[in-house]
Design goal:
Blueprint (H helix, E strand, L loop, with lengths): L17 H8 L9 E5 L7 E9 L3 E11 L5 E2 L5 E2 L2 H10 L37 E9 L3 E8 L3 E8 L6 H13 L8 E5 L5 E6 L4 E2 H6 L1 H4 L3 H20 L12 E3 L5 E3 L28 H6 L4 H16 L11 H9 L14 H10 L10 H9 L15
Antiparallel strand pairs: 1-2, 2-3, 3-4, 4-5, 6-7, 7-8, 8-10, 9-10, 11-12, 12-13
Helix pairs in contact: 6-8, 6-11, 8-10
Family: Belongs to the protein kinase superfamily. Tyr protein kinase family.
Keywords: ATP-binding, Kinase, Nucleotide-binding, Phosphoprotein, SH2 domain, SH3 domain, Transferase, Tyrosine-protein kinase
Catalytic activity: L-tyrosyl-[protein] + ATP = O-phospho-L-tyrosyl-[protein] + ADP + H(+)
Length: 401
C-alpha cells in the first residue's frame, strides 16, 4: 500500500478493524457524518469508508462503503464518480453525498496512542528507582500480591503490583519481565518497568481505569453492558491472544481476572507469562487447591502440557464469564469434581440466565474440544468476533450508480 497517499492525513486510520472503527465513530461527541478511511480487510489495494449515520427507527449506527482501486491508480465508490486520489474522493464527498447516507462532515478523532515507556531512557533500561514511584491507593489483591494505583514522578498514572516475598525467584521473574517488555500490542497491558533490587519486587505497568474485567462485569456499570459491547470485548481479547499466538508465546492464566478494562470498554490482557515463574503451590496442580483448575485445559492439569491451545480452552471459559456477567464457571462444583467431570466429557451447558446465541455457545464448545489440535486458532476467533453481526445489517453499502 502506498503510504504517501495517506501520510499525515487526519481522516486516515492505518491499523484499525471494522469493529474498532465503529466503536470510535459511535462516541457521543461525534455528529452524524463523522467519518474515517481505513485499509480494506479484503482488497490489499482498496480502502473502506466508515460513516456515522442516524435513522429514526434505529438511532445512531455506522455504514461502511468500499473504496475500490482503478487500474490507473485512481479510486471510486460508485463507477460514475472516479477520482485520481483518496484525498480528492474524500474532498468531493464532504461537499455532496452523491448517494452516501450523509455528506462527510468531520474526520473522527484519533485515540491516544498507547504509551509504552515512561520516558525515552526507559526503552531499554527498565529498572525504575523506587523513590520515583508514589503509591497512592490499594486497588486490590492479585494472585501474586497487592496492586496499587500510583504515579511515577508525581506525573504519570501507573498501576504497581507488589510481589509477595518468596513468590518467585528474582532472576526467573526478570527473565520473564524482559520477554513481557519486548512484546507490544494494543491489546496487551504495557509493562513500563520493575523495581527488583529489594523485596517486595514491584511491577510497574499501564493503569487501566476500570480495573479487571471480572470486577467490572460484577459492578453496576458492567452489568449494564449491551450484548454488542460483550462481543467487542471478546474480539479485543482474541486479538491480543492472536498476537501472542503469532509470537509463539503462551499466557497460561487467561481469565476475566487477567483482562483489564479502560475508558470506552477498551480491553487489554495482563500477566501473560507470569504463571510460569510462580514458585508457591498456588500454580502447582499437584498440591495447590487454589490452582485455577476451572480455567485450565485437561492436558495442562493432568500432564502439565501448556500450549497456545490450552490458552484457547481458557478463552472459552473466559467467554462464559463474559456473557454471564462474571459468574463463576462450573457453578456449585469444586476443582476436583470439575477435573473428573471434564475428563468424562462434561462441558458447561448453555446458560439460561443470560442471552447467548447458539453460535457463540458452539464456539465455546469448540474451544473445549478434548483434542487440543481441534480447537480453533486465536486468528480464527479474532475474525469470528470481529465479523459477528449483532444485527442482520448488510456489511457494506453499495452506492447507486
Amino acid at each position: 500500500m502506498n503510504s504517501n497517499i495517506t501520510a499525515g492525513v487526519s481522516w486516515f486510520f492505518e491499523n484499525i478493524s471494522r469493529k474498532e472503527a465503529e466503536k470510535l465513530l459511535l462516541a457521543e461527541e461525534n455528529a452524524r457524518g463523522t467519518f474515517l478511511v481505513r485499509p480494506s480487510e479484503h482488497n490489499p489495494n482498496g480502502y473502506s469508508l466508515s460513516v456515522k449515520d442516524w435513522e429514526e427507527y434505529r438511532g445512531y449506527h455506522v455504514k461502511h462503503y468500499k473504496i475500490k482501486p482503478l487500474d490507473n491508480g485512481g479510486f471510486y465508490i460508485s463507477t460514475n464518480k472516479t477520482f485520481d486520489s483518496l484525498a480528492e474522493l474524500v474532498n468531493a464527498y464532504t461537499k455532496n453525498a452523491y448517494g452516501l447516507c450523509h455528506v462527510l462532515s468531520k474526520p473522527c478523532k484519533k485515540p491516544q496512542p498507547t504509551m509504552w515507556d515512561l520516558a525515552p531512557t526507559y526503552r531499554d533500561k527498565w529498572e525504575i528507582p523506587r523513590d520515583e514511584l508514589h503509591l497512592i491507593k490499594r486497588l486490590g489483591r492479585g494472585n501474586f500480591g497487592e496492586v496499587y494505583y500510583g504515579k511515577w514522578k508525581n506525573n504519570i498514572e501507573v498501576a504497581v503490583k507488589t510481589l509477595r516475598e518468596g513468590t518467585m525467584s528474582t532472576s526467573a521473574f526478570l527473565q520473564e519481565a524482559a520477554i513481557m517488555k519486548k512484546f507490544r500490542h494494543k491489546r496487551l497491558v504495557a509493562l513500563y518497568g520493575v523495581c527488583s533490587e529489594q523485596e517486595p519486587i514491584y511491577i510497574v505497568q499501564e493503569y487501566m481505569t476500570k480495573g479487571s474485567l471480572l470486577d467490572f462485569l460484577r459492578q453496576d456499570e458492567g452489568q449494564g453492558l449491551e450484548f454488542e459491547e460483550l462481543v467487542y470485548i471478546a474480539f479485543q481479547v482474541a486479538s491480543g491472544m492472536e498476537y501472542l499466538e503469532s509470537k509463539q508465546l503462551i499466557h497460561r492464566d487467561l481469565a476475566a481476572r487477567n483482562v483489564l478494562i479502560g475508558e470506552n470498554n477498551i480491553a487489554k490482557i495482563c500477566d501473560f507469562g507470569l504463571a510460569r515463574v510462580i514458585e508457591d503451590n498456588e500454580y502447582c496442580p499437584k498440591q495447590g487447591s487454589r490452582f485455577p483448575v476451572k480455567w485450565t485445559a485437561p492436558e495442562a492439569i493432568v500432564y502439565g502440557r501448556f500450549s497456545i491451545k490450552s490458552d484457547v480452552w481458557s478463552y472459552g471459559i473466559l467467554l462464559m464469564e463474559l456473557f454471564t456477567y462474571g459468574q463463576v464457571p462450573y457453578p456449585g462444583m469444586h476443582g476436583r469434581e470439575v477435573i473428573e467431570m471434564v475428563e468424562k466429557g462434561y462441558r458447561m451447558p448453555k446458560p439460561t440466565s443470560h442471552y447467548l446465541p447458539d453460535e457463540i455457545y458452539q464456539i465455546m464448545i469448540n474451544c473445549w474440544d478434548a483434542n487440543p489440535e481441534k480447537r480453533p486458532t486465536f486468528e480464527f476467533l479474532t475474525h469470528y468476533f470481529e465479523g459477528f453481526n449483532v444485527t442482520s445489517e448488510v456489511p457494506y453499502r453499495e452506492v447507486p450508480d
